[in-house]
Design a protein that fits this description.
The chain is mostly beta strands. The protein is built from one helix and nine strands; from the N terminus they run βββββββαββ. The chain has one domain: Virus Head Decoration Protein, Chain: A. The longest helix has 13 residues.
Amino acid sequence: MSTPTLEGTTALISDRYICSFTAGTGGVTAGQVVYLSAAWTVLPTDGARKDVVGVALTTAPAGKKVAVVCRGLVRVTASGAISAGARIGSAAAGKVAAIAALDAPATYSESAMQTELDKIEQWIGRALKAASADGDVIEALIYCMP
């Protein structure tokens, strides 16, 4: 009797999700972190965002379809130094940046709590390799679900 496996039996354990979107103004380049705009098109991120849908798998001009990896292993460009294993979020120019660890405020204030909650909403995954400088290409495990 063969040993049963769960590989490929459910979407929850597949190696990645790929969704199709339309590229917005200016287009999208493969490897850029993208977000869903109000016009329902994807654009490269312009900083830390909460509406990231994934990483562009293909390059597409404005108005054309682009494949976006919403969950899985990807190569992304760092916007600065990132430690291996660090939580990452979006940065300007479709890059990624390390997200600071959560830090419970010593005294309650709405703005301090919102800052910490924003960190949670901005997480898109983890760096699997370290980046030492802006422009380094690293591997990451992302989990953005549109």
